[in-house]
Amino acid sequence: MDKEERAFYERLEGKGVSRRDFMKFCTFLTATMGLSSSFVPKVAEVFAQPAQRPPVIWLHLGECTGCSEALIRSMYPWIDQLVLDVLDVAYHETIMAAAGHQAEEALHNAVEKYKGKFICVVEGAIATKFNGGYGKVGGKSFLQIAKDICPKAAGVICIGQCSSYGNIQAAKPNPGGYKGVGEALGIKTVNIAGCPPNPINFVGTVVNYLLMGKLPALDDLGRPLFAYGQTIHDNCPRRGHFENQEFVTEFGSEEAALGYCLYKVGCRGPETYNNCPIAKFNDGASWPVQAGHPCIGCSQPDFWDKFTPFYQEL
Ligand code: FSX
Ligand code: SF4
Ligand code: F3S
After folding, report:
1. Residue of the CA atom closest to atom 3 of ligand 2
2. How far is Cα 172 from Cα 297, in angstroms, rounded to an integer?
3. Ligand 1 atom showing the smallest separation from residue 160 Cα
4. Whose CA is nearest to atom 2 of ligand 3?
């Protein structure tokens, strides 16, 4: 183990994370990324000895900051440390100390310094009507901010449903003309869909980039296939209960066994692409259907307009 690696493990230990916990996390991440277990040491290396730390500028537009919260708080409590180890976050309104004019200046300086090289991570949708008047930061519309900054990035990763497809801001009647970043600017973005998205899918996308030197393969909605290649229903543990004789016996009748599946109370799992049943949330604690709530389809574009009223059979 070299000096850098040793220092990394010491830092983790300082946070109460053993090398074993870390390797467990890397195994889970590697599997989520759809890679064979032989990649685990390489994935660990990306964190322990990052060969490159791409500069990141993280924008907050029309949203609730739940995506950042999901990433830096609720998962493995030390994931923020890992993310900050592999990314060189030059600007992030939630975690930086600067505010007001100082923050504006920091953003401007970071964009100039890393022009053409930084990854722009965007949280939040963009108001497009009335010159972008429905959403501003520091007197500048989201639209103007995104137009100024996104084209100067090496790539744009939309974290969450809002930046990916507009989400609730874009739900009818959408007076501000809110749109996702790709649509508002007419550019290609990587979309980490979901409200909130699973942090592991963001981390997996970044690690894929650092490991393979390219972004992961995407579906036609810009979502990484390793995470959004199958439906919720494809991997749901509640599936098949009414087809499985053991469960039918346990529940008393085919109908009762079917009731265990949440389809009749509006589950959108059959039409929703995401890896929630496998990746789960909060360190593998649970996910909506496990907690007894139907999937509402939060990683599908326009799910507010398309899937409401919730709790009605598809
Ligand atoms: Fe949206 Fe993220 Fe939902 Fe909230 O920033 S995906 S409203 S969890 O926070 O953008
Ligand atoms: Fe499919 Fe939803 Fe039923 Fe699970 S609960 S089997 S995702 S319909
Ligand atoms: Fe969203 Fe459905 Fe997963 S509501 S969090 S995609 S189970």
Report:
1. 261
2. 17
3. 6
4. 295
In the predicted model, is pLDDT for residue 264 greater than 80?
Answer: yes
Report which ligand 2 atom has the smallest distance to the Cα of 262: 5
**H or E element: which one contains 123?**
strand 119-123
* In the chain, where the domains are located: 1-49, 52-227, 230-306
**What is the rounded CA–CA span in Å between residue 10 and residue 245?**
52
**Quick one: pLDDT at residue 278?**
94
Architecture of domain 52-227: 3-Layer(aba) Sandwich (3.40)
Which among 220, 221, 214 has a CA at the least distance from the CA of 194? 221
Task: Compute the average pLDDT of residues 240-260.
Answer: 70
Q: What is the CATH class of 230-306?
A: few secondary structures
Q: How far is CA 109 from each of CA 55, 60, 113, 115, 267, rounded to the nearest angstrom? A: 13, 17, 6, 10, 47
Amino acid at 248: V
How close is the Cα of 127 to the center of ligand 1, in Å?
A: 15
Q: Which residues contact 219 (CB under 8 A, 6 or more apart)?
A: 225, 228, 229, 273
Output the pTM of the full model.
0.93
Q: Which ligand is nearest to the CA of 123?
A: 1
